[in-house]
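RETRY 2/3 - previous attempt timed out on the joint model. Re-submitting the same 458-residue input unchanged.
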Amino acid sequence: MQYRDVIAQEAKRSPTTVPTHQDQTEEPELIALSLGRTSSGKIRDERNKVPTVEKSDEGNEGLALGLDCKLDVPKMLSQAETTSLNPSPENSLEEVKEEGEEKRKNKAMNNAGDGGDDEVLQQSPAKRARVSVRVRCDTPTMNDGCQWRKYGQKIAKGNPCPRAYYRCTVASSCPVRKQVQRCVEDTSILITTYEGTHNHPLSVSATAMASTTSAAASMLLSGSSMSGGPSSSSTTSNLNGLNFYLSENSRSRPFYLPNSSISSSSSYPTITLDLTASSSSSSSQLSRLGNFPPRYPPTNLNFSSLQSSVLPIVSWSNNAILSYGTQPCSKNQSTTSLSFQANPNETLYQSYLQKITMNPNQQTLAPDTIAAATKAITLDPSFQSALAAALSSIIGSGGTNNSTTGVQNVVEKSKKSVKSSDPFPTLSSFPSSTTNVKKCSPGFLEKSSSSSSSQLGG
DNA sequence: CGCTTTTGACCTGCGC
DNA sequence: GCGCAGGTCAAAAGCG
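RETRY 2/3 succeeded.
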């Protein structure tokens, strides 16, 4: 209830924020975030199934956000355009085999678009969106759970720090690339720019990051209408809070993304997720909710979990999108080393827990604490959806095309488990070896070694 | 030996 | 057309 009060206050304070709960009482909303790609072989099936699912959701006034393989950008095109244009190279196994071919296709499409509708071009699935992540990191690169191969390095103009180019090597045909460059103003800040979508199964850790970047990219593409207007080409609209309008049929719902900016100065639309703690305003916002060390970014979607549980808890607030810590992690990381466990002070949700327990350093939470926290979450449909998204990103293949329902069943089961004083179900096992600290990692990758045994032990 | 990194050359897009 | 800058290629070198 305190959390809801804060949310309500924030909603009043900001003219462009997430829909209030009052809205939701009038129109029960379901925001289904399908995070992560669990099986590349299902891509086409999923794409085909999306309309069916959405059709079934229409009755619930639901909002289905197709992310990653369920990216629904082509739906924004007319049927003729969709059939005339090639499928998104980011979502098609066949289309990404030849990078050069892809370039030629894009070029051909751009030529074909001469004199055409600019909006159509902007929303073209072939136009890659980039997601730039700013993270405070002392290591050469950020450990995002994927395997990368460096294929180039350049000194970019205006920045003495070289820009490194990496290519995903998990799958030979994976089109995903990233650029890593130090911020010229603050070399402790690492700017990682992701481009493309993985066309192969990802580890949980990689899925977390990939889902986030993909979500931002898909929102950027699907919400391209906001990129127009006075702040269009060759400008960067640095938005303290950014509204993403995710259109589903005739309905649009805003998403509020602070510390974000959209740039269309380059040939690619780029969204920047600032995960550094530089935003004092956001910090102060969070400070009202709990004690956040300045080191940790006052951010958004948070893939952290309870201390006593491996199950990730995703907090989705109107204050933020994504919260990654920046502590080093093992280079061995590899794609399987992951613990959804972050700094205990990182999240709004955990802050709330801390208020309850008055003991932030507590390693295990009492069942009633979990129950209270779960109650707080389940009262908020947005929280519930975000939690479902996190579960889907882990469980992934366990769901069907109607993953939302399936995941929500899991959520319901989680509720029941809590009600019966049972901790959250433990998912998977995580390697405990963390050595060779050379890379920093998202916060949710932390602590895989020392605490995994106790986690699994309950 | 296989994989990764380095680095100069090359390609492409864009502005003048 | 030219130059610049970003991005990519690929041979050579490095590394385990």
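The first helix of chain A runs from residue 2 to 13. Closing ticket.
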